[in-house]
Amino acid sequence: MNRLTLRRKTQLESRRARRIAVLVTLVVTALLGSSVPPSFHGLGILVVLCLVVLDLLLVRATGGLAFTRRRTLDERESALRDHAYRRGFRLLGVALALEVLIVIATDYLSFALSTLSQNGSFSGSSELNNVITGRGLTAILELLVMLPTLMIAWSDPDHVEPRGREPGRRAALLWLAVPALAAAWLLAVSTVPEQATAASTNSSSFGLEGATCAQFSAGRVVGSQFGATVGLRVGVCWNGATAFVADDPSIPLPPSALAAMGVPANTPANFINPAELSVTACGADNLDDFATVSGMTCRGVTDAAGTLNYTVRAHVSAWPGGIGQRDVSMTVVIDRNGRVLARP
Amino acid sequence: MMIADPPIRQRRLRPVFTPTRITLSIFLGLLCLTFVPLLARDIFLFGYLVLVLMTCVMLRMTRRVPGSWLGRRSVRRALVALIAATCVALMASPSYTGVRAPAPSDDLALFLLLIVLNVSLGTATQRVATAPDTTVDERQEAMRNRAHRIAYTIFALVVGGTVVVADVASQQTRSWLGSTVGGGGLIMFLELLFVLPARVMAFLEPGYQAVDVREPDGDRPHGGRTRTAMALLALTVAIPVVLSLAVAVLPLSTSTTLAATTDGSGSGATACREFYASRNVGLGIQATLPFHARVCWNGKRAFETFGMNSTDCEQSSSALTTTTTTQCARTTAADGTLAFTYRTDVAPSLMPFVHREVTLRLVIDRNGTVEQFP
After folding, report:
1. Do A197 and B171 touch (CB under 8 A)?
2. Is B243 helix (H, G, I), strand (E, B) or coil?
3. How far B366 CA lies from chain A's nearest CA (Å)?
4. Which of A183, A304, B54, B127 has the most CB atoms around its CB within 10 Å?
5. What pTM was computed for the model?
6. For residue A134, is pLDDT > 80?
7. Distance from CA of B170 to the nearest CA of A (A)
8. CATH class of the structural domain B250-372
9. Is the CB of residue A187 less than 8 Å away from at least one CB of chain B?
């Protein structure tokens, strides 16, 4: 009889239960690594905490074999652990390759869904360069840290636990990881300084008769990828007399632009300046997986000298109800000749 | 395949779908999807890729005896250090650090060196790290399992640590991560994923003893196969070198077309004419300078209507070469003769010290007589 069967019962004792836990862990990891759903609307931390609970259960079920120092293991345990690492290393490649495929496939799916859900105009993919989002980063870390444990939990028929270790006290300490992680996240969202997003790698090209136009996109990251990103996406045109926002019917075109286009004065605004979300969109580039973004406003004001001030404001909260709330603001200023006077 | 004991399990069929093969297939598929448009345009690059794949397959089929030199622990450790240095050099390449625009061909030399070093590493470790379970004995199994455990830790720290720090730290680090993921970073990632356990084995293990190993299917000689593989390897390395040198010595190929003279009264000229030219240097590793301009004349002077400005000197296309425009000048002489000179310096990416100057020149007098083209 295996010595481990003499120990007191722990969760996931049966191989079947462990395998189910492994599959659930992989599915949750794939969910985090994919673009479906496009946003967790601030509840991403709950998904991560669920994942951490699953991880802890599996670490307990395998006796933390993957993380145990060699000298405390007997020959069989050592061999089992090394073998799990080899399998884990090989499967890590498969997992990361599949992760890339999942990201590509779900990006297309999200794009298709956003296209179907819009009437005539859709915002397209993000103009911001998020590189690796917080949820993607979590999925990568989960695979890197947990794959050997998943291998041991999946393949070993017996409940394995290193010699001389009782699960009681140490296991209880392990559970502290859950509130510690939640506290670290709350601290990050509410105190870590805001950062700019990486330089954008794509932008939409557009034009307006009698004016020169360019698109501006920028973003502010709150909570170092584990909070939210507030995006700014605006199409600006200038004609020597004034700078103005294009493709947003809620901000009327100036008379000089209308005169250059040669349209009658009583033409409806959404006819001459229809909404084109791929050019100008308020909140289209927001990323709110781990924190909520609320009170989003996008205002364009042109002063007497023809200089445009376009300002985006939003509240970022760690939790609904304003817990750990921070205000984010971005302004882009362009004069009537297209000179950029300020940008985020 | 070299083994120490004749394993009983050897008669079992080897699995077709191993994790390594699946990973490799997915990454190769993604790379092919990315580069198919490029390959379709460049038959040389496509042919070279086929040659590289053939070489890899042949090398996989050759015997793996490290020999007295590669069998030494110090040599193997030096090899491991050299691979690591090459990977770091690829990561730190100016192409991916924002110093200059990324160009996939710029780091070809380092990439080729990495291939050669990896082939040597495979020979030095007898490719035990990736050998099927049925072909390794217990000692080798334990050895490679341990190597994988250490490699896993290194991989997690290097890849995980780099990604986390770069993605979280600042805008600059995120931008660096974004640019390196598509270039040197990707190569380093794949290198670590597929070769790191072998590197750990090469570093840790004592010298291999050739007397311990033998052929599983008898002592069938593999000399012919080895010679073919080595010839293909030499060809794979030599082709880029020879074609880089060819940039400097091969004659230039030029094609020109002069459109028929057209009435230029609309532009205040007597007549106008369009000039097309293309000058090509090199073969496979090459650069092409296109020229398309329209010139009009009125008996007093010749003048351009388009195609002779500074932006028209930035239209060269290159494959594994870098082009630098050294002269782009349009002048009108006192007698009304128009002259345009477009001069570019072409250097192969693999051997930037090899140079070739390519010049396109159009001289046309005030009556539309072409004095020089191209």
Report:
1. yes
2. helix
3. 37
4. B127
5. 0.73
6. yes
7. 6
8. mainly beta
9. no
Question: Which of A89, A195, A201 shows the shortest C-beta gap to B152?
Answer: A89
CA distance A315 to B323: 50
Q: ipTM, 2 decimals?
A: 0.83
The reported pLDDT for the residue numbered A77 is 85
Kindly give the parts of chain B with pLDDT less than 50: 1-11, 96-104, 211-219
A195-212 pLDDT, tens per residue? 888 766 666 667 777 788
| pLDDT value for A269 | 67
B92 backbone dihedrals φ, ψ, rounded to 5°:
-90, 5
Please tell me the distance from the alpha carbon of residue B56 to that of residue B48, in angstroms, as a whole number: 12
Query: What pLDDT is attached to residue B1?
Result: 39
Q: Does B34 contact A at CB distance below 8 Å?
A: no
What's residue B41's pLDDT? 62
Domain spans, chain B? 14-248, 250-372
pLDDT at A339 over 50: yes
In terms of Cβ atoms closer than 10 Å to its own Cβ (0-12, 13-18, 19+), residue A116 is exposed
B161 to chain A: nearest residue by CA?
A141
Task: Say yes or no for a CB contact (<8 Å) between B23 and A199.
Answer: no
- From chain A, pick out residues whose CB is under 8 angstroms from the CB of B18: 90
- CA atoms of A324 and B152, how far apart (whole Å): 38
Asked if A137 and B163 come within 8 Å (Cβ–Cβ), the reply is yes
Which ranges of chain B would DSSP assign to H, the alpha helix? 19-41, 43-61, 67-70, 73-91, 108-124, 138-155, 161-169, 171-181, 184-204, 223-249
